Task: inverse folding
């Protein structure tokens, strides 16, 4: 019952990413409509506006993410989720009542502010789930994002423009309402000094009594994780020096400056996000229909896009299982290598047409699978579990900022780059990032599967500090 409760609550939280995915894939099914003379808008979009249409959401996320990093510690995880679910509701409301190009672009920008879901959701889920299912549940953020893309492709292909907008608005509202019955995360309540409420939250998510041994043990583990002297003390030393428990709380920046293990964890996480984005699947997802129209002209772009989203969701489910069975590190290394091979094959096929036409689609789907196994899942899981509670919101915000800045760059330059060098060679660039990611993970990414945060931190500590721990 305890595990089922955590899974159910995680699904409710991850739904926020589904709502986000609906809007992020919307340009794929409306790009042609908005650029044509038969557009539903007050005028056709220009080339610059079309480029902004696909990338403005990333700019919105760049603004929303730092704000969410601050509000995570101010309002808490639950109310941050509710607050940042509202931009999707407002954006779909604008889209349903307006036909102005400027307002549609504004709606895309506003929806991007809710893009910090990929920061908030993994943090929330990782703090309510036990270690045995933490990785699987945290990766649910990307699975539900994939479900959002799938729904967007399906609704765009099956419904007329206005009906789709109303359905998406309803789905966004449901996501906000579903969050209200949840409790705040126990670790956040402990950081605020609300130990009694934290015990109640543990009891809620574990479905046990507040006085149970499991709750007491969980509270003690959180106290240990919140100890600012974690890098320097063993549990035995902590018992001998109880006065350290009252040490003055450090600022987040000072904590990072003092803790070498936290700095190394941050550097590894930032690099994982950067190389993941430039592996290129975000381009395929946002521009799915026009890409498939060029790569597979004999097959309906809508069918190809829907199949891509289905494959991404299924691959995400398999990845969620693998990272808690095989481990984060091997999955990331081998998946990135395979993704690089797929990019090379796909690029050469598009450029040289050396094989049958259907091979283009096969390589694109294989790239989607291998990317989802590794770069589409592992960075989000790793960043949600490697940071101490003292700096988790700040460090997660820095990782998300890196991802969204990279997203904007790659989406904005993609079309001009394709015009300059062709679609095939662009995939060679993606392949280079795939191989670089695998190489980096081989040398610098430790295995974190099933470990509590204090044990994970010792993996990033210098050898001398690691031995003492």
Result:
């Amino acid at each position: 019952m305890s595990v089922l409760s955590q899974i159910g609550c995680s699904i409710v939280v991850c739904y926020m990413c589904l709502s986000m995915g609906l809007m992020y894939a919307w340009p794929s099914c409306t790009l042609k409509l908005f650029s044509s003379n038969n557009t539903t808008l007050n005028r056709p979009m220009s080339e610059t506006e079309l480029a902004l249409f696909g990338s403005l959401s990333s700019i919105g996320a760049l603004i929303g993410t730092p704000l969410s990093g601050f509000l995570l510690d101010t309002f808490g995880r639950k109310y941050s989720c509710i607050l940042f679910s509202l931009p999707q509701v407002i954006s779909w409301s604008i889209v349903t009542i307006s036909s102005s190009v400027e307002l549609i672009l504004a709606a895309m920008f506003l929806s991007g502010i809710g893009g910090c879901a990929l920061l908030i959701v993994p943090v929330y889920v990782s703090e309510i789930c036990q270690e045995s299912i933490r990785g699987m549940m945290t990766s649910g953020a990307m699975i539900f994002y994939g479900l959002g893309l799938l729904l967007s492709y399906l609704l765009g292909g099956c419904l007329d423009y206005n009906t789709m907008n109303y359905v998406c608005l309803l789905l966004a509202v449901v996501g906000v309402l579903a969050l209200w019955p949840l409790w705040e995360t126990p670790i956040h309540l402990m950081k605020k000094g609300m130990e009694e409420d934290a015990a109640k939250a543990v009891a809620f998510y574990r479905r046990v009594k507040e006085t149970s041994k499991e709750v007491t043990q969980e509270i003690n583990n959180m106290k240990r994780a919140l100890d600012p002297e974690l890098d320097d003390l063993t549990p035995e030393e902590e018992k001998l020096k109880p006065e350290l428990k009252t040490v003055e709380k450090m600022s987040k920046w000072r904590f990072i400056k003092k803790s070498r293990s936290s700095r190394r964890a941050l550097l590894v996480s930032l690099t994982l996000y950067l190389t993941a984005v430039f592996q290129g699947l975000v381009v395929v997802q946002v521009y799915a229909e026009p890409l498939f129209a060029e790569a597979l002209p004999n097959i309906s772009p809508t069918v190809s896009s829907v199949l891509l989203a289905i494959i991404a969701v299924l691959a995400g489910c398999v990845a969620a299982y693998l990272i808690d069975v095989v481990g984060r590190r091997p999955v990331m290394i081998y998946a990135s290598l395979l993704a690089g091979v797929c990019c090379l094959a796909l690029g050469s096929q598009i450029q040289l047409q050396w094989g049958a036409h259907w091979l283009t689609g096969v390589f694109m789907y294989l790239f989607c699978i291998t990317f989802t196994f590794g770069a589409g899942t592992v960075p989000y899981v790793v960043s949600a579990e490697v940071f101490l509670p003292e700096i988790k919101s700040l460090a997660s915000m820095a990782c998300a900022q890196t991802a969204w800045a990279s997203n904007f760059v790659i989406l904005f330059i993609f079309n001009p780059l394709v015009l300059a060098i062709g679609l095939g060679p662009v995939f060679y660039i993606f392949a280079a990032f795939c191989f670089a990611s695998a190489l980096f993970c081989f040398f610098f990414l430790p295995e974190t599967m099933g470990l509590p945060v204090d044990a994970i931190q010792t993996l990033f500590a210098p050898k001398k500090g690691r031995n003492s721990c």
Observations:
- The chain has 25 helices and no strands.
- Confidence is low (pLDDT under 50) at residues 230-248, 465-469.
